[in-house]
Structure formats: structure tokens, C-alpha cells
């Protein structure tokens, strides 16, 4: 390897000997290299006359750290879009299957999802602003929309239609909501709107607010998506840990567990919701009903070994955001799932029967659609890639522009695949200049492939599609009821929705008859939920179903009874306890979960008895959460601190919700980092010195992003993307939760802290490198034997006797031992002049009486505090004046230098002593 410096250009020319070249088995490949985190690739890399890339090194970079292997960055022939017919030839399908186009560009552009209304018209979510450039310019321009299409001649192609709602800012979803109406919302907004076509011109002309407090701001990949009508008549979305519901009296909402989903929601025949992860590359929630709360299931539990390995066709271009660690060598394809999108439980009737009830999702980075089989074991699910043993996938393509982002059971009984057919499938925060992926994008000109998109029908050569076109809007309620027995789940779902929206009570008797006498379970399930949605659910009927011979019906009866209990029929409490002794594991689990949710008396004893009789994995999961509940109210990962104010508790709870919805995909549910191959997707948060240090570290990381190695450890791609578009309150909540939880127990972060850091770092360009970030953050000055620590009073707070003031800087603690009065002081004399920027300490409350008496603890924080510095111990400069706060304290000081630091307590409290422990001082030594 030869490195030649060109002084005038400030560049380094890398020359490789022939023996270092790696062919990757592709004719165009010449030189090869691997970019480390210290290297920067220009917007348009230059090349020597021999064809070797010229790589710009940061100023002062050590060229000995530049190592190269396995990555080709020389210009290649651009990846060009194929015609629809040519792409069709590139699919690699299982025997007997075929892909047929039903709608494509130029009629539609960059589709992200589809949905059908009661008359079979297809609505297409067109994300026309997505990744038009490698810098994601124009993402939030109002150029996207929702189009509507019809197959008027019934030839299987949707030829008639156009834009139904236009000029939208990256809409999050489309949900048909009755005749000629849809629900949707825009990115960075908080309101769902209903758009209706009132004059029949096929364009929405009426806009009404449906509900608010629904959205979030930030990266468009991290916001809520897929508003989805569940079998239980509630509407679910990804990200949000709540569900909403239309009623004749308005929209209501309830809290749910955290689904950790990103792009895709669906349900199975038993009404269980399935959520699709994004960055995780796997389904995010599928083990238990999401509305019954959170249960501690470790990542990877329920996934067959090797589930995270994709088997896409060789791509050779290796355009993976995770760099070469994410690439299958020689083939240039993805070696571990990383960007899943869209999902569907296929419930149609015009594909082979062995597909019914199977879970499908897309992995657009791997260019695959995966078929997943669910196996129930002891009440829990195990997901299996149906074709893993064959090292294959259900649908593959040799076209690198195939981007499957959604799957949908269609009215014609087949399954539709939404193919964005796009060059870049990673949002711009992961494609910054200098990144590996950016170099690949420019190498193959992937940023030039925009404005396309195809919708495909997956069918089988031996089964004709159903050509009966839905006309539900033109049918009576009695006619809609008949569709509840249709073999295609789409017809059943849509008929149920429309019956609930109509609120026609005339069909109640026939619905009750279906529940009692239908030969198949599925019509009985839907009929029950229509009755529930009409407010006509009879408790007697529900109890009859609780005694049904089939465990699935008993389970469904439990499910639907929740509505009656919440409306005031508490008599079902006895049924819940009784059914914890059912012969079915599934029924017992749900009975326990419901009883836990509603805090039914006797649930603790019932859980113990159930666990003693049945130690299956599902029972153990639920029973243990009842018998040994988490020691926390708002954080599963950090113990509650009674000294936090109500405002601080709200902030931490908000931060926990955001963490579970967003951050946990990379950092793991327990904060230990999500495993990827032999490494982690992101650093562990548990007992993390950086997080326990100065709060500027975590705030700067969230606001401006972080990339590169940390303490000589590498992680998958960009460690933290910039999230400065979020509010100061949002950042403060996340930072507070992370610092307080995961055994960090650090002080909280305020919105004022975030605002100061935001202003101070406004000029930061791109994500921080770790070394630069560390250098910009105040460091903790460690306690040394040369420090002289004195105080007006000295009693170790945990010892109860006379002690030394230095205990305030250790876990032992320090206390005045007597109630607070003006004039108490605490002082540190340093061996040299320092600059102090911040002080942190905890002030633990003192319990009154026995804990069973329920008396509140006495707060021990300083009621009124003055902090001063001095160079000689005589002339003092005040750097802080104000009240101390409930533990933990984080006090930012005015800039001042001194050899002495003094704290004076000027308040008064008849019971509360002044106590401090685990004090941290942040600043710099000056000499």
C-alpha cells in the first residue's frame, strides 16, 4: 500500500498493489477500500489516472490508521430503473407463484402503503418527497398525497383514478373511513383529519379534525404510522403507546403497552395485533395482546435461531448503511436484517391454503418479502422463516431497486405488494457526507432513481383471483352481515367496520344467532365484535361463549367481556378469576392478564395457584409479573425516587415512553444494546460513565448526533442520528430518563439545560466524533486527598453519628444532623485554582416512623442556597443563589475561578436536616 500526500490539495492518494485487490466477483470491480470513522469521502470523490480513489483525511489524521479492504468506491455504471415488465422478470418466486402489476408510475409515485375501501377502491399513500436527494432535501415539502384508484373494467389493473388528497407533508397513513372518506395526518403534526369527497368528483373537498394529541415530531422514519382498525374496533398505530376509538359520542383513547413498531400493523383471526419493527429488521410485538400492558420479554425470545439472517439474491453493490459489517462478502447483499417495513397476516382465499394465517413482511434493504410461520409453545410464539433451511426467502429479486414496503390482503383474495421502487431506502440522517452509505449512493448514482413505484399482485397459477368486486357502500346492513362469513378476511373486516360505523341496531338478532350457531369460529368472532361496536353486547351471551368447547371462543369471550367490565359490569371479575384455572394455556394467560389489568381482587393468589399447576412459559411470564411486580411506577429500569417532584415524574415517564417507542430498537429494551452479529447496534446505557457524567454529553448527543468508535469499540453505522428537530421538552425527557435509569442514577435534565446546549452548539456541522464530543463536555473533578472539605456540621447521613464533611462527596453522605437554619455552610478548598461549571448531589429523604404508617419522607435538600467561589478564602464571588431541588440536584454555575468553593444554606425547616451525598463537581483545573 502506498500513501502519497499532495500538499497543494491537502489530500492523500491511496495506491494499492494488485495483491491487495478484492474482486467481489463482479467484472466492473477494480480497486477496493474500507472507510474508517476517521476518513471523509468528498461529495464527488476524485480519482488518480490509474483509477484509485483520492480520500480526504481530517486535519492531523494518522495515515497509519487508514486501512483498506473489501469496499469498491470507484465509479460504476449507474443503477438504472427497469420497466415494469423488465422488473417483473427479475423476481425469484416459489414454484407456481407469479407477480403481476396492478398499478405503477407515472400514475403513482413512491408508494408507501395501500388500503381498500368498502367498494374495493384502492387508496395509495404516495410519499413523493421521500429521499429525492442523498441529503433528503424537500422531505417536508407539501408534495405528497393520497390517491384513489379503481379497476372499472375488472381486468385486474387499476386504471382509473387520481389524487384524492394532495399537497400533504409526508402523510403517515391512510385509513378508509366510510364512503368517500379517509383518515390521515401529516408528519410533525399532532392532529388526525378526516378528508371527505362530498360532491362526487373523486377529490376530497371537506377536512374535519378527527382527534389530536396523536403525533410526534422528528425524523420521518421515527414518527407514528399505519392507523389500523383492529378486530376489537380500536385503532392502533406504530410508535404510540395508546389506542384510539371512534364512538357515536366522539373519539376516546386508552393507554396500551409499548409496541416498538415502526412501519406496519396487522391482526390475525383471533384479533391479536402484530407490529413490525424497522431498524430491528424483525417483528416488534407479537407475543401477547398489546392493550393488556407491558411484559418483560427479552429481545430474540420467540425467534428461531438464525431468524435475523436474510437470504436475498446477490446484489454486488453492497449499499448497506451498516457498512461492510452488514454485507455478505462476495455477493454484496445484506447479511443481517436491518430495515423491515410493512406486514400482513394473509387471510385471503385465492392463494394456496398453506399461506392462510402466515405472517409476511418486507425487508427493502435485502430486497425480500419473508414468509413467517408462528408456532405456539406453552402460550408463547416462536417465529420461523419458512425457507430458512433452504437459505431462501418467499419473494426475492435481482433488481436492486425492488423495495417492498407493505403487504396487503386484497379484496380479490390475493396479496398485494407495495414496491416503492426507489434508489435510496434510508432517510438522510443516515446518509451524511463522509458516510459509507453516502459513498455507495454516489458510486452507483442511486440518488437519481426517484419518482417511481409499483403495486404488484401475488397470485398462483392454479388459482384465479376473485373477480367479484365489493359494493358494500351500496348494500343494506343485512347484506353486510352476510360478509362476516366470507372466506376472505378482508371482506369480514370491512363489513364489520361499516356495520359499526352505521350503528344500525336492526341486525342485532341475526348477529346473536351467528355467535351461537355458526359452524365456523371466524364469523362468530366478528359478529361478537359488531355487537360490541353497536353497544348491544349481552352479558349472558358472553358468558355462554366463555363456556364454549373451543378454547379460541372462550378466549375471544374473555377479550370482548373487557368492554362490559369497563362499562361497569364488575360481575365479570369472578369469571376472570375462575378462568385462570381453564384447561387451555391461552385462556389462562388472558384471564390472568385481564385480572392484572383491572386489579381484580384475588389475582395474586390466583396467579400463584395457576403457576403451581402450570409452569409453561406463557403462564410463568404473566404470573411472575403479578407475583413479583417491577419495583417502579414509571420506569422498569430504575427505582422510583420519592424525592422527585410531580413535574419531574411526568418528565421521566414521558422519556420512558419515548425510549420504549424509539430508542429501544437500537439500545435494547434493557438498555444493554441490541445484539447484531458479534457486536451491538448501539452502546449499552447500563452504568455508563458518560451518561452519569455531565448532562451536556447526552444532550449534545441527542441534539447533534454521534458517530465513530467509542473507546475503541465499533457499532453498526451511525451511533446516534441528530434529533435537534425535536422540542427542548422532548430532549429533556429522554435525557432525564436515560440518566436516571439503567443503574445510572444521575441528575435530571431541564428544558432550560437543553435550550442552552442547543444555542451553544448551533454551529456544529454533522454528527460529533466521540473524541470531539468528550473534549467539549466538562469533566468530573475527582476527589483527591489534597482536597480540604469542612462544614459547620458533620453527621454521616446513613450512620446517624458524628462524622466528616467529606462524606458528601462519597456514597456515605453528610448531614447537618439538625434542622436547617440560616448560616449553615459546606466548603471545599482545592490544592489549586479551578473553574467550576456545575455541581451535582443527591439529598435522600428521611423516613418518618415505620413504612407501614405511610407517612411521607422529610426532604433534606437545602431550602435556600448560596454558592460562592474565592481565590483566597476572603473575597467571595457569588455564582448561584436559589432554592435547592428535590434529589438529585444539578446546579449550573456562573463562570468563575477560585481555589475555594462554598455552599451556604440560608433557609429554615423545622424538621428537615441539610444532607448531601455522591457529590460531583464538574469543571477544569486552571494551573
TrEMBL record:
Transmembrane segments: none annotated. One of its GO terms (molecular function) is heme binding. It comes from the Bacteria. Keywords: Heme, Iron, Metal-binding. Residues 650-742 form the Cytochrome c domain. Coiled coil: none annotated. This is Sorbosone dehydrogenase. Gene3D superfamilies: Cytochrome c-like domain (1.10.760.10), Galactose-binding domain-like (2.60.120.260), Leucine-rich Repeat Variant (1.25.10.10), TolB, C-terminal domain (2.120.10.30).
